Amino acid sequence: MAPTTSAPEAEEHVASDPNNFLNLLAMISDFSSNGGFNTSKWAFSTNGGTTWRQSFVPRQGGFPVTADSHVWQANSDPVVAIDKLGNAYLANLYLQADTQGNVTNDGYYVCVATLKSGPSFSKAGCHAVRTSLKSSTVLEDKPWLAVDNVSSTFSGNVYATWTHFTASSSMIFFSRSTNHGVTWSPAIQINPASQNGAIQGSQVAVGPKGEVYVSYELFTGTGATGKHEIAKSTNGGVSFGAAVAQTPQFTNLTFCTDYRCNSFPALAVNPKTGFIYDVYTDQPSANSKTRFVRSKTAGGLTFTAPLIINDATAGQRLMPAVSFRPERGCEHQLVRFAA
Predict the structure, then answer these.
(1) pTM of this structure
(2) Which of 231, 275, 298, 301 has the fewest C-beta atoms lying within 10 Å of its C-beta?
(3) 128: which residues sit within 8 A by CB, 6+ positions away?
(4) Based on the domain organization, do 117 and 146 belong to the same domain?
(5) Residue 269 lies in a domain
């Protein structure tokens, strides 16, 4: 994407086309065009990232707009996906703020367009997963998105997960779309009620038989420590089993004094074997470590002891990501982490 010169860009995410891996869809929060508020900008490449065509999400008068004709002040937390039917998806939080810059209400929306030689998103394609159009004590946060490009039973389903905040608590919510993002099911809660108020940072992924997995961080103690929990659905996201521990307890990052960072899960499922993977960082001492866990069996919810995968002991690591190269199959996986 073209760099800005007057304000920062952040929160990048990228996905590849399952039918043509040279097609890449990316999105990022851009702070340069909206008076200091961020607006998501997407970009598309047909040559593996050598060149890109880019545009902001649909806007009206310079502000983000959605299919319900609501004009928002900003949007953030972008996530992208492409399904094997040729649909491209942009997931975003859409935000309204008061004169002090405090968020008063928001919504979780997913914009969909046909990929073809390059997507063309419009406000008519930006549908609400969950939204509050007026000032509210209810807020949505930290969205994630996945499509079923693997199974035959639930092929084409789109799955959304996020943190739902009330005035006094928080919980992990999940919704599914069976018509390519046009309508979304009523939200269901993934975490047990006993964990309400102590969770954040969910991700969703799909297994080879259409299994749906949702992983999130559960803060323990006073929040200085945490662990990852994971829940599984075997009916295309209609219902989920009980969440179980995915990692042992770890120490959350403390070195991020002038910017945000976290120890949320980065989740992936092998589309051939069904093994489940999670990478994350913790800070047991002065320097942080990147840790890796894998399910002990395909599709199973018991996990190996964390393996440290960073090769250097000095310095800090944060916010890793994990993904697969499905064309290689089996156990070939790509792990990326930021140093």
Answers:
(1) 0.94
(2) 298
(3) 66, 67, 68, 107, 108, 109, 184
(4) no
(5) yes
d(CA 113, CA 53): 15
> What residues make up the domain containing 247?
137-170+203-339
pLDDT tens-digit profile of 148-199?
A: 999 889 999 999 999 999 999 999 999 999 999 999 999 999 999 999 999 9
Instruction: Give the Cβ contact number of residue 57 at 10 Å.
Output: 23
pLDDT tens-digit series, residues 222-275? 899 999 999 999 999 999 999 999 999 999 998 888 778 889 999 999 999 999
Contact between residue 13 and residue 78 where contact means Cβ atoms under 8 Å apart: yes
Number of domains in the chain: 2
Residue count (the chain): 339
* Distance, CA of 229 to CA of 69 (rounded, Å): 37
Q: Cα separations (Å) of 56 from 145, 207, 216?
A: 19, 32, 29
User: What contacts 50, CB < 8 A, 6 or more positions away?
Assistant: none
Tell me how far apart the alpha carbons of residues 138 and 115 are, in angstroms, rounded to a whole number.
34
Give SS3 for 27.
strand
Report the pLDDT value the prediction gives residue 335, as an integer from 0 to 100: 47
| Residue 126: its H or E element | strand 126-131
97 with 2, same domain?
yes
CATH number at residue 85: 2.120.10.10
| Same domain assignment for residues 306 and 243 | yes
Of 131, 122, 49, nearest in space to 88 by CA: 122
Does 164 lie in the same domain as 72? no
Q: Which tens digit of pLDDT belongs to each residue from 64-91?
A: 999 999 999 999 999 999 999 999 999 9
- The reply to whether 262 and 339 lie within a common domain is yes
Q: Does 296 lie in the same domain as 221?
A: yes
d(CA 237, CA 246): 19
Do 97 and 162 belong to one domain?
no
Same domain membership, residue 159 and residue 64: no
- Tokens at residue 25, please? 């869809």
